[in-house]
């Protein structure tokens, strides 16, 4: 290594990319086209960009995976702390640049957490590998699970383990690809808090991210990658103001920015809910009730529907609301669970309890969101409804048939269950064959036309002959929804349909779900995605520890701190802002919030059946709250 | 249709867990606490011992000793059940042969030999591998100068078991739910058998493709975590990894005792 290349390391930027062009072997065009980028040491950078923009490839040049592992055509240079990456191996760079992959579960190669964290320092022959591993494990609070097998961990724990594995080498730069893709919002925040702490201790952090809210809250600067080049690298506040650029990169501005833009134009753009509330308060809108007062009145007025811990099996819909709903609603039931319990065998012997004495009724036209932290029993509930699992106790009735009496294949004509990872739904070698599998297998009359119609409707005709596994994430979701549509189920069950999708694909899926309503009588979605809950659901069932702790509307849920905290849920920013401003019911989206606060009229498209007209004066706010309570109560009676 | 029971799914769960229990030696046992190199040598002795004799008496003693060792190593109900199933099958076969070869009992004796030999080797293998978790196996292989890749393959293979089982089950479920349902069971349930076989064959393609997709990240991650570098840093990683291995007096005693038992078996058989 030439002396000049070493340079004064303290002064050199963490990462310096000059005129970098890269083409994957066998690819038709360059993935990176003349990238110039400087990341200062100690920065917290968010790299944003649409699918296929080259952001992950760019990130992989930082630790030498490009060009050492992917040896395509490369020109230009990448310097890490002033030293070029071309002559250094990936392993050597690993001590300087830690990398956590997007599908971090596959990054774990050793049986237990501690082994996995110690793996890199061991391989690189660090004599203090044990201390390094222990420090990394302790730094992320992983001691309680240090000896757990990695395949038993939840997604969030796996991510932290992968992070600890990278940190065991004490890199000065940490690259994390989409940390929030597969975990619930509370856990995403937790991961970011860890990253912030590392950053404060001097680690340069680079995240590839498309959740604008997380970027706004945690990053110091933002790099926009578009079509293989870096468009700009700006401080976060300035970056958030470049609305059009962000949207073109499938990173819609955070809701707080949208709100402030509509209601407080000209004021500095807020990056957090606090900033936004403060900015709106500065407007001194006479229409707004002082938040404290409104909150107090609402809390007094709202019925406490959420049952507290340990209330026994008489929780949720069955006790108060299931009974009442029969009188209130004349809609037909499609499925019901009565005192259902279920669990799994564990490696240590005892059977776990995942669903615990749960009762629930699902009705026609319900759009049910099943929420709760990881391990709350959401997926198990779906497999029980699909008849794939039979309850250990209690009964599950779907479309009038006890799932014990019917085989799962027989039930498949009534209930369709879409598993979390779309690739597991692709059993054939083309999308068309997968869509056709059920109708042809069941000898449905006119199966061919049905398949053609479904493919056309889901906009999949162009990729009908391709293998589903090779499609992009958003297209894969579309394809699985097409499979479901061709099964013509009455009850559709989806597990995390928007996980690891970029925001445009996610909005697309939410739109499709709304469209499906006319074909499918009832849809149940297990999800962590509160925006999906806000924009799509008419009913939210909150699970915790295998029991229902609330069965309510999205708006009522977003106003219920006890339930939100217990289920580790974070409402969308619009709901948070609305709540802080004392609106009741809590608004679900930006459009609704803006309309109710007297800004630009909301688009009619906003799906908000329980929107109340905003209170005309401050005195009416309490009356509005009462009205909201009545509406909320009626919704809750489902 | 008669009432379904959850046996199908539960038993799959149970088999998976049982496999994991065996794979990760969660039950303990007398071999689990020994140095992995001693266990491998123990296995070599036990697995070679039955091949140097044709005496039914010697083999019977060895078989009995192996059975005791397997039970003491807590191989668990799944392996034991499978083993017994195999032995019972062999015994039935022997019984039939006994009826046919009534004239020549010596011929039956020669038929017993392979059963006892293979039975002994199976029991010893189960005892050894139910007592070694993947880490210990790869450490032992590494300590015995086997190529690094072999040790890693063992460890990573074990790591993939639960992933593959999960994936496989989802795919089979998908076929069951979305595929053509059988038109009745047919004679002796042949349609069900054909359907099951078809599903198993068709599951192969998605299973392998999905797994290949997963391993792409794994391979990249291994690179960043110094897997290929481990060989090139002058064996420092190897020394560090093996530093915890201790071949103690107890390990020596285990091997001595094993040799003694084998010798004893040959002596009682009167071959020595």
How does this model look, in words?
The complex is a heterodimer of chains A (638) and B (272). Chain A is an alpha/beta fold and 638 residues long. Chain A folds into three domains: 3-249, Rossmann fold (3-Layer(aba) Sandwich); 254-302 and 585-638, no CATH class; 317-566, Rossmann fold. Chain A has 27 helices and 20 strands. The radius of gyration of chain A is 26 Å and the shape is globular. Chain A starts with a helix and ends with a helix. Mean pLDDT of chain A is 81; it is low at 1-9, 289-328 and 600-638. Chain B folds into two domains: 26-132 and 233-272, no CATH class; 148-232, no CATH class. In chain B, 74% of the residues lie in helices and 0% in strands. Chain B contains ten helices and no strands. Chain B has helices at residues 7-23, 36-48, 56-72, 77-100, 105-131, 134-143, 148-178, 190-224, 236-242, 249-268. The relative contact order of chain B is 0.13. Chains A and B meet through helix 3, helix 4, helix 5, helix 17 and helix 18 of A and helix 1, helix 7, helix 8 and helix 9 of B.
């Amino acid at each position: 290594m030439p002396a000049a290349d070493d340079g004064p390391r303290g002064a050199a930027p963490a990462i310096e990319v000059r005129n970098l062009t890269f083409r994957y072997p066998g690819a038709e065009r360059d993935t990176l086209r003349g990238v110039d980028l400087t990341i200062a040491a100690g920065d917290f950078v968010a790299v944003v960009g649409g699918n296929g923009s080259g952001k992950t490839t760019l990130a992989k040049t930082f630790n030498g995976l490009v060009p050492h592992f992917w040896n395509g055509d490369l020109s230009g240079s990448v310097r890490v702390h002033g030293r070029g990456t071309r002559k250094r191996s990936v392993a050597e760079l690993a001590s300087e640049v830690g990398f956590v992959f997007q599908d971090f579960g596959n990054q774990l190669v050793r049986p237990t957490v501690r082994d996995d964290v110690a793996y890199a320092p061991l391989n690189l022959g660090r004599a203090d590998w044990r201390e390094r591993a222990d420090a990394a494990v302790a730094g992320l609070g992983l001691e309680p699970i240090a000896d757990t097998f990695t395949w038993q961990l939840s997604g969030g724990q796996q991510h932290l383990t992968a992070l600890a594995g990278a940190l065991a080498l004490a890199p000065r730069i940490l690259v994390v690809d989409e940390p929030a893709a597969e975990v619930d919002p509370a856990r995403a925040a937790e991961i970011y808090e860890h990253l912030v702490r590392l950053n404060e201790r001097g680690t340069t952090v680079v995240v590839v991210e498309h959740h604008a809210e997380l970027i706004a809250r945690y990053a110091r600067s933002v790099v926009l990658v578009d079509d293989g080049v870096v468009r700009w690298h700006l401080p976060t506040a300035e970056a958030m103001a470049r609305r059009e650029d962000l949207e073109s990169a499938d990173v819609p501005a955070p809701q707080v920015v949208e709100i402030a833009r509509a209601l407080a134009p000209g004021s500095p753009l807020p990056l957090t809910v606090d900033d936004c509330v403060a900015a709106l308060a500065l407007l001194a809108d006479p229409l707004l009730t002082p938040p404290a007062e409104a909150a107090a009145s609402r809390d007094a007025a709202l019925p406490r529907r959420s049952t507290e811990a340990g209330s026994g099996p008489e929780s949720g819909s069955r006790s108060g609301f299931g009974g009442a709903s029969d009188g209130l609603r004349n809609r037909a039931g499609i499925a019901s669970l009565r005192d259902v319990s279920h669990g799994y065998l564990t490696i240590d012997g005892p059977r776990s309890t995942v669903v615990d004495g749960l009762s629930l009724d699902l009705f026609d036209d319900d759009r049910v969101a099943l929420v709760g932290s990881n391990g709350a029993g959401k997926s198990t509930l779906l497999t029980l409804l699909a008849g794939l699992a039979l309850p250990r106790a209690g009964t599950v009735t779907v479309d009038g048939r006890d799932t014990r009496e019917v085989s799962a294949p027989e039930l498949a004509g009534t209930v369709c269950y879409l598993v979390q990872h779309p690739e597991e739904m692709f059993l054939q070698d083309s999308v068309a064959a997968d869509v056709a599998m059920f109708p042809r297998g069941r000898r449905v009359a006119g199966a061919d036309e049905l398949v053609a119609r479904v493919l056309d409707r889901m906009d999949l005709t162009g990729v009908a002959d391709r293998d589903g596994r090779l499609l992009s994430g958003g297209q894969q979701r579309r394809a699985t929804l097409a499979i479901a549509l061709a099964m013509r189920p009455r009850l559709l069950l989806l597990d995390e349909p928007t996980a690891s999708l970029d925001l445009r694909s996610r909005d697309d899926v939410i739109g499709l779900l709304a469209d499906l309503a006319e074909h499918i009588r009832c849809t149940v979605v297990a999800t962590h995605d509160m925006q999906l809950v806000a924009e799509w659901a008419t009913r939210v069932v909150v699970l915790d520890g295998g029991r229902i702790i609330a069965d309510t509307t999205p708006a009522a849920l977003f106003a219920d701190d006890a339930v939100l905290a217990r289920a580790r849920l974070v409402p969308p920013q619009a709901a948070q802002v609305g709540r802080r401003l004392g609106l009741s019911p809590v608004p679900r989206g930006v459009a609704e919030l803006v309309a109710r606060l007297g800004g630009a009229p909301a688009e009619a498209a906003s799906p908000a059946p329980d929107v109340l007209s905003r209170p005309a004066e401050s005195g009416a706010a309490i009356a509005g709250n009462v009205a909201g309570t009545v509406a909320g109560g009626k919704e809750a009676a489902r | 249709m008669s009432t379904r029971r959850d046996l199908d799914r539960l038993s799959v769960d149970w088999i998976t867990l049982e496999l994991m229990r065996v794979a990760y030696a969660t039950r303990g046992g007398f071999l689990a606490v020994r140095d992995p190199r001693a266990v491998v040598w123990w296995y070599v002795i036990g697995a070679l011992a039955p091949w140097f004799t044709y005496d039914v008496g010697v083999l019977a003693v060895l078989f009995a000793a192996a059975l005791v060792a397997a039970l003491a190593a807590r191989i668990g109900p799944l392996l034991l059940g499978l083993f017994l199933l195999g032995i019972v099958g062999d015994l039935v076969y022997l019984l039939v042969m006994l009826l046919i070869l009534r004239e020549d009992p010596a011929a039956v004796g020669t038929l017993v030999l392979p059963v006892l030999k293979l039975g002994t080797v199976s029991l010893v293998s189960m005892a050894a591998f139910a007592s070694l978790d993947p880490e210990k196996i790869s450490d032992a292989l590494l300590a015995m100068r086997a190529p690094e890749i072999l040790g890693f393959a063992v460890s990573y293979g074990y790591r993939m078991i639960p992933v593959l089982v999960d994936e496989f089950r989802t795919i089979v479920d998908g076929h069951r739910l979305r595929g053509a349902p059988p038109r009745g069971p047919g004679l002796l349930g042949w349609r069900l058998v054909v359907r099951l076989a078809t599903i198993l064959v068709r599951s192969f393609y998605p299973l392998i493709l999905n797994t290949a997709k997963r391993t792409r990240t794994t391979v990249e991650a291994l690179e960043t975590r110094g897997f290929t570098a481990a060989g090139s840093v002058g064996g420092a990683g190897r020394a560090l990894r093996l530093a915890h291995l201790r071949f103690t007096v107890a390990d020596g005693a285990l091997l001595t005792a094993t040799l003694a038992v084998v010798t004893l078996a040959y002596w009682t058989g009167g071959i020595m």
